[in-house]
Structures
1.
Amino acid sequence: MTDSPRRGRLFVLSGPSGVGKSTVLARLRRDVPQLWYSVSATTRTPRPGETNGVNYFFVSADEFGRLVADQQMLEHAYFAGNHYGTPRGPVEEHLAAGQDVLLEIDVQGARQVRQAPGLGSEAVLVFLAPPSFDELIRRLVGRGTEDEAATAARLEAARDEMASQPEFDHTLVNTSVEDATAGLVALLAEPCSPAPADRT
């Protein structure tokens, strides 16, 4: 056994809006505190209870544009009037130091990570799916964090995102926070090779 650190593993958790990614991530933080959780940057305004640097880095559109222009974003997307993205530097630093990293991002972002030079081939992509599309609608409408137009946009995008499941290495169905978290914990404990796309 060597004292030099192994390279960390990069995990990407994705899925449609309203599927419960943030809730599962909060439980995973409690159960796997040694995992490094990347914080995304966004140009949207904070929701009640959100903290800058914890939930997101809330930045201006100009600052976000500078980060993209300087190639400091691992992935980025524009959705429902706002920009979202993952700062590249911290992810690469933690992987090089031997720490496993988890990104919680949308499907567009997951695709960009898969194509990222030097990182995409090692990323393990995990799709969090709802028990049904009707249940996803109920969750999205019920959370009441956005106006009707924004909710409709998310539902339209979710139909396309649900069709992307075959692109991911694993699919977990979020029937409960406990079961989804347990599934993620099991994946984190597996050998570092991505699984075949049809594996659940």
2.
Amino acid sequence: MVFNISKDDEGKRLDNFLKFEKGFSTRLIKKITKNDCVFINGKIAWADDILKEGDIVEILLKENKEQDIMPEDIPIDIVYEDEDILVVNKPPFMVVHPTKSHQSGTLANGVMNYFNKTKQNCIVRLVNRLDRDTSGLVIIAKSQFAHQAMAKMFEKNKVKKEYIAIVKGKMEGKGTVDLPIDRPSLDSVKRCVIEGGQRAITHYEVIGSSEDVSIVKLILETGRTHQIRVHLSHIGHPILGDELYGEKSNIIQRQALHAFRLTFNKLRGEDLVVCTANIPQDMLEILKKYNLDFQEDTYE
């Protein structure tokens, strides 16, 4: 990574510049300076070096290739890629990362295979995750820096997270659900709206409805586990096919929830990145059944 120091950054310590201007964690700054991986104008730099206008700061990010994820020849739908991140459209019924019960066939196995085939010296660092039965956009960071920087953007709500859901019943209008979410007990998989839980904010707008189902766009202001599923169920419109927060459906074999769009700034530069994942076929079939239309260009 290369940074050209402007007049605005003159006089700053190197470590403060990297932390507050470029999103490096304190831990990573210590690691790269200790291992002689930072250079100013071609010379090894120290954390307390003072920057001057015109300085060129170069950082060598060395990846640790040790990761127990076997590459598998699984097709992945790449939506966007740059030097720092990979964004893929995860299909429904796919686990994002190996677990005890899902040792193979995961998104991470496919991504590792892609990194190997394209000779990218990366391990799989998931920035966000989706439930097995939720489809849509997942971001994978290619370095420790990218992972920390993207995680910070999510934490500060600088990533716009948009979803599409098909819910039970006729739902109308738009609004915001601002209700806390937590587990009712430590051993519970299910979450619920509960006093004293973590604050959770979901904005919604109905973009089509029939007497039986409605299609809803949602924007997450927070990112709690199962947030959309809990909030929609709480207001009386559980997601179609969501057996945990609603009931089984005979027209879809999963919850009809899709992570449709992510909008954020590139980590290097200020270019805006807009990633969109097409609505999967099983959800499109439901919309067709109920004569509901979804046009991506009208979804703003």
